[in-house]
Amino acid sequence: VWLRNEKGIYDTIKSKYLEKGIVKEEDSISLITEVEGILYVKNEERINNNSFTGEADIVKDFEDKRLIIDIKTSWNADTFIDSKPTLDYEVQGQIYMELFNADEFQLKFVLVDTPENLVQREKDNAKWKYYSGDMSDAELDELENLMQPIYSQIERNMIFSTNPNIKKEERIKTFYFKRDRDLYAKLVEKVKLARIYYATLT
Q1: Which of 73, 75, 150, 167 has the fewest CB atoms nearer than 10 Å to its CB?
Q2: How far is residue 112 from each of residues 30, 125, 157, measured CA to CA in Å?
Q3: How far apart are CA 108 and CA 79, in angstroms?
Q4: In angstroms, rounded to a whole number, what is the distance separating the alpha carbons of residues 41 and 34?
Q5: Nearest 5°: phi and psi at 174?
Q6: pTM for the complete prediction?
């Protein structure tokens, strides 16, 4: 944080997991809307207070409560099955509930189709394991034919909307959290301590 704020130096994070999450966020929201029968839209408002800043994915008002939803678009079925809330996610939820004055936080892991360019990249990566620059045209054709079953499996591993064995309801996992003002107060105290330490670096 100090390097970014004071020196303008920071890492640019780029990965296939992050790319899918960004590109397919709207698809994840659409799937949740369809399965739950409730219209959800992407929140575009960022809120700041004296301690935190945050832009929740979804802010939804009901008659009896305000709900915050954070969406985690899973990379594949394995990461989806293994997905579970961490302390960081819980802390994030408490901060969102404070910033947006909400009563409940839902963490949703969602399994949607992978973008075509990422599917193709996985196919290419699989092919390059067997490719050699000195292959003849005939050998390249043979390799392409041999790769077809692998390509098909990659598609099954990354495309879910056309898989009759996976129900739409099975592609959403939800974890629920209530607002905890005591926990939030502890987070604010940690921010105060962090600022004291930060001041020693400048």
Answers
A1: 167
A2: 10, 21, 11
A3: 13
A4: 12
A5: -120, 135
A6: 0.88
